Amino acid sequence: MPAPALRTPPGPKPRLPGQLLLAFRRDPLRFLERMAHDYGDVSFARLGDRRVHLLNHPDLIKDLLVTEHRRFHKGRGLELAKHLLGEGLLTSEGDFHRRQRRLAQPAFHAQRIARYATTMVELAERTSERWAQLATRTPMPPVLDIHQEMMRLTLGIVGKTLFATEVEDQAQEIGQAITTSMELFRSFTTLPFASLLEHLPLPSTWRFLKARARLDATIYRLIATRRTAAEDRGDLLSMLLLAQDEEGSGGMSDQQVRDEAMTIFLAGHETTANALTWTWYLLSRHPEVEACLHAELDQVLDGRSAAAEDLSRLVYTWRVLAESMRLYPPAWVIGRRAIEDYEVADYRVPKGSIVLVSQWVMHRDPRFFPDPDRFDPDRWTDEARAARPRFTYFPFGAGPRICIGEQFAWMEGVLVLATLARRWRPRLAPGHRVGLQPSITLRPLGGMKMVLERR
Questions:
Q1: Which of 106, 133, 166, 442 gets the highest tally of CB atoms within 10 A of its CB?
Q2: What is the dihedral of CA 65, 67, 73, 75, to 10 degrees?
């Protein structure tokens, strides 16, 4: 007997044209949550001109990102991200991606990353001192947007450790360019015929092009300066400029270096800044967890600055960060485009379809994380982690395209959190409403106003 025909997965049915696309644009997190809750581990929705499938089981996530990864390319969002990032590691495909990753990998070797720890702590201490100066100027504890503060700090870290230059003084201007790019990128990725927008003389298009030009100017200036020096300063840019392919095809052009540098420049501070922002928010809402964090910092650091060798002992600090990224993953969704027909759980995914897996949805699945909305760092004990399937948690992606800077980000997050929490207890400002802004990353809508209280 012939095999039964594969079915289209279940999913929401619109009552009006464009209804589902509007619902997704309005609240993509809620939309994906409802798809998984109402229709199971494989669901389908037609969003405008796109066929979108959502997978929400660790086995299916593993297949998409690891086992069957060659049957997919990047999703629509990252294809459009080429307008900003070019052909960097985040957006490139196939042999070119493998070559670029091979050239960039030495810059993220564990021993090289460990050298960056001192700079991370120094810049975090500089932030702490600036906060202390602000606190002396007013009788009341200062109120700051902790998201802007973390963006400024991580921008300084990525500039110093990966490009061996000071960019902290330019943080406001560069940060505004990044924010503009992020906001407009969401429109580019959710509107029908978005690929045409860059070619239309719209105000939003001009703002995007201006922001991109501002970021380009910074990157190309660094490249030009470093080409002249032709030396290894121990940073990523040096590695990119000096790298030679083992197959004899030479190094990278300025354009290729620009694309990789832009990718690291943005991804290397945006995601960590968001992770830290949400961590401060969660700690302010859970003083019992904060007390355990402070106890570990007092015991391990005993009043001194943190260092790379402390990472293995800052176990609870790591758990706090890991749990924060479970609840508020900086990368909240991963998209792939099927380059051939794909079969999953007796369903058919036609060639050209978009397949999504969502950290936001999977990380909150009660099958694997009981009482999923509860902030509980003890979910990350060795025993608890061993009891869960591997792909229930993937804040940095998985497979051959896993974030190349994952270990850098973990070290930065733990050391910055330890350095600042040693002296400060940020508290959510009275009246500040916390909202979610899911764009390329999961930002807090309207920032995160917090009162800086000393410990």
A1: 442
A2: -30
Task: Supply 139's token pair.
Answer: 């009788």
**Whole domain around residue 104: which residue ranges?**
72-325+400-454
Number of domains in the chain: 1
In three-state secondary structure terms, 446 is coil
Distance CA 212, CA 217 (A): 9
Judged on CB neighbours under 10 Å (0-12, 13-18, 19+), 342 is buried
- And the tokens for 424? 């400060």
One-letter amino acid for residue 234 of the chain: G
Domain presence at residue 362? no
pTM of the model: 0.89
76, 136, 185, 217, 385 from 178: Cα distances, Å: 20, 32, 10, 13, 35
Give 95's strand partners.
Answer: none
User: Residue written as tokens 């940060």?
Assistant: 175
The rounded distance, in Å, linking the Cα atoms of 115 and 362 is 34
For residues 378 and 319, the answer to whether their CB atoms sit within 8 Å is: yes
The pLDDT tens digits for 258-278 are 888 878 777 778 899 999 999
The per-residue b/e assignment along 410-428, b for 16 or more CB within 10 angstroms, e otherwise, is bbbbbbbbbbbbbebbbbb
* 76, part of any domain: yes
**pLDDT tens-place string over residues 364-419:** 999 999 999 999 999 999 999 999 999 999 999 999 889 888 999 999 999 999 99
Please give the backbone phi and psi of residue 261, each rounded to the nearest 5 degrees, phi first: -65, -40
CATH number for the domain that contains residue 236: 1.10.630.10
Cβ-contact 397, 331 below 8 angstroms: yes
Q: In this structure, is residue 1 part of a structural domain?
A: no
Mode of pairing for the β-strands spanning 424-428 and 342-344: unpaired
In a domain, 231, yes or no: yes
CB of 452 within 8 A of CB of 131? Answer: yes
| 455, 423 Cβ separation under 8 angstroms | yes
> Beta strand 435-438 with 442-445: parallel, antiparallel or unpaired?
antiparallel
